[in-house]
Amino acid sequence: MKIICLGSGTSQGVPVIGCPCAVCTSNDKRDKRLRSAVYVQTEEAKILIDIGPDFRQQFLHNELDDVDAVLITHEHNDHIAGLDDIRSINFAQRKSIPVYASQRVANCLKAYYPYMFGDDLYPGAPRVSIHVIDDSPFSINGLSIRPIKVRHGLLDIYGYRIKDFAYLTDAKSIPEDQYPHLQGLDTLIINALRKKEHHSHFTLEEALREIKKIQPRQAYLSHISHLMGLTAEWAQLLPEAVLPFNDNMVLDLI
Question: Closest Cα partner for 222 from 13, 2, 66, 1?
């Protein structure tokens, strides 16, 4: 299984428009972060988790051109705003793309993109099909996927486990009944927005506490704000087996 970091930044990305801080003006490529998304490639399927406003740039940069399915964590703009650009894959591959999301998120997608859904689609509209999911596992091309329910402030959203890999973004808490689904992980990617308290995202300290509880073999921190500070500085303070998840990083998992 291969995991490609398409983006590891928060909703504004890094650098933030107009911000003169040390991170936003840094020349370190680790401080350049597009909106968070990952591409998961297995023998069974090529899966995109979230499709934000940087999707086109992310796919072009990583020389990707195929998707078997899109998994949506939640309906916030930085996780869905690139869906229109899926039409390039429609045209090239001559196929509709299934999109997996909760009922609430499915309703939001239909409201956000009314021209993609219904009986009278205009020529050239993206072709996607919504598959409503709940807390139960589902499969794509024989690949089993388990939704992991987390809390994003007051909002219930999904992370996903695929084999021994799990991706949790925009979480502020994990319900106790979800921890059994996170046992035995080889690799965990989890959000860590900044060091200071935030109402709907894990801080660095909170993310490290969750990693210690889940105990994956290797963990990576993602959905990172410029307020975290320079990567070169805070990355040195991380425990063993915890690393920053940086844009365009490729993880080859057994």
Answer: 13
